[in-house]
Amino acid sequence: MSFLREQMSMPSQTNKPNIVYVMTDQMRATAMGCAGVEQVRTPTLDHFASEGTRFTRAISNSPACCPARATLWTGMHTSEHHVVSNDIQLRTDVKSFAQSLNDIGYKCGYIGKWHLDNNDRGIYVPPGPRRQGFDDYWAAYNCNHLYFDGYYYVDDNPDPVWIDGYEPMAQTRLAVDYIHRKAGEEEPFFLVVSWGPPHDPYREVPQRYLDLYPEESLQLKANVGDKVNRKHISGYYAHMTALDECFADILEGIEDAGIRENTIVVFTSDHGDMLYSQNEIHKSKPWIESINIPLIMRWPSRIADGRVTDGPISIVDMMPTLLSLCGADIPHTVQGKDLSAYVLGDETAAQETVFINQPIVPDIFTHYEWRGVVTRTHTYASMRRKPWILYDDKRDPDQLRNLVDLPESEDQQASMERLMQHWLEKLNDPFEDSDEVSAKYYKGSKNGIMPIFENETVSVTKRLRRQTRKQLLDAANPTNRT
Q1: How far apart are CA 403 and CA 389, in angstroms?
Q2: Catalytic residue numbers?
Q3: Interior angle at CA 156, CA 152 and CA 157, nearest 5
């Protein structure tokens, strides 16, 4: 206990830890070698896990890009931050994660995908409230998933800077440069590196990484059905190996800058990817591939190395937990839980459940809006009129047997339903249908989808770049012409 009290002592004004928060997009928890499930090569992440703590029950509360990111930066659930689906501008009237760190002297920088500023995916986000406190450095864009046509806006310049080559590699170089600059300054810093992959398009990755994963040799997860595209899985793994190398460069940059001992490094994602498990694709579902995200945290001498723990922790908890570790006040609007004691090693401080939800489901999906809960051992989700899934994740990690409405699971199902109802009451969530939620918070959407576009400056440049690249490829390889 004395060790834990020492671990929990708040940092002084002069030794507040830096935070480097590295976030992928659409990466599921098993898509790294150290998870021991999928055959993906991630030597950097595997070693990094041995230097810190890996949280195997890390959960995306709302497994879609914008809702998850809004949850992260506000510490609030969808019912409060109102980003109930993609392409909604995040509210600016509550104190954000970065703004809370600004209050105690942190300099905050952001690199990469933002995706919290309306349905113009190419928009320039101006300095000010819409950047949510990331005022020290901004090299970001709203949303782009063409990884050989990447770009970003720098600080107060409204003209995009275009990237040659694979986008995450350029973003990594920017991150390393920022880390080296900040290491020589007195103020602590908070840097977010937000990569777009392994989000589809899965094959938009350098060929040398694709060559590592021949489609015919892939071993599929046990719950992958007959609807499968092996090219997509090969590309997903290729993205992860490429990102693993980028992450190595960031860790090396921290080491070279001499700030390893006083820097919290977080590796995580916004949500997962079904990738043909349960015959489903992409995200927004309550199965483990969609909601379970990687989470590894390293803080030498404070966060235990080599620890693997299965206590439920979720995106909504990241803001209060990290603010607490840095000695910052937690805004009264935050709904997540301060799990700093748990992160630092106290297993008794883990929470019992986390809440999961998808308030709007597009009409093109075969299911409807849902709510649910995750515990150390089980996953449960219900649609508005009927229970949907219940799995014993310890006995059935691939979720091959749905226990909903089976006589043998009656008591467990009733217990999970009570936990879910408790969360709905606690969050004042009326569990409305998609149309009702859209009418409140998703104005302009149609059938559960917001029309998206890119402004002319971005869209025209992208088209010209791709045309030029194709012409060069055709000139070098005449057989490519069709």
Answers
A1: 7
A2: 65, 115
A3: 55
Q: What is the pLDDT of residues 400-439, one digit of tens each?
A: 999 999 999 999 999 999 999 999 999 999 999 999 999 9
Q: Is the pTM of this model over 0.90?
A: yes
CB 81 within 8 A of CB 164: no
Give the pLDDT confidence of 36-77 residue by residue, as tens digits.
999 999 999 999 999 999 999 999 999 999 999 999 999 999
